Amino acid sequence: MLPVLTTSGIVSIIIAFLLGLLIGFLVKKIIQIGLILLAIVIILIAVGYITPQDVINFLHTLSAKLPSVISSTENLKSIIPYTSITFIIGFIIGIIKG
């Protein structure tokens, strides 16, 4: 027997799908930006503007600030409906089509 769909149920399904779509699009763009930054760093090292030690020092500084970023993302984890199948479908479509 199928569950009865109410207006609030349909709205929550649509919102979960749209959130998944937008977050999937955001993740794809972040990965693209990361790859572009990696290419820039490789070119700068090859040309000699920066040294690998400069990159290592930057990564150490970045990793020192990482725990505060992780703690703030824990709050977002409770808001996002990542267990919903409509969210997952929207997320996959957002990554593929983004």
UniProtKB/TrEMBL annotation:
The chain crosses the membrane at residues 6-26, 33-51, 79-96. Keywords: Membrane, Transmembrane, Transmembrane helix. This is FUN14 family protein.
